[in-house]
Specification:
Elements: E1 20-25, E2 28-33, H1 36-44, E3 47-52, E4 58-64, H2 71-75
């Protein structure tokens, strides 16, 4: 994955608990998890967001706040 979160698959970007990105600080390169921004956003806002493809199919979702209890319901909407 590169700095724009693009994976090796064309047109595929990654985000979430399993995503990592390279970081360089003081000349030391390391891989960091991309979880902190999501955790911070989840504490501030409450909602449900869907990732929809060009055909209008739900391919993923993000839940925050009290909406996290709706995981099973939202998982049924995701098109395999």
């Amino acid at each position: 994955m590169n700095a724009q979160l693009q994976t090796t698959a064309p047109h595929v970007h990654a985000l979430g608990d399993n995503t990592q990105y390279a970081s360089e600080s003081a000349g030391v390169s390391r891989t960091l998890p991309y979880v902190r921004p999501i955790m911070a956003a989840a504490k501030v806002e409450e909602g449900i967001w869907h990732f929809v493809d060009a055909l209008g199919q739900v391919r993923g979702f993000v839940l925050s706040g009290t909406q996290t209890s709706r995981r099973a319901e939202q998982a049924k909407r995701v098109t395999a």
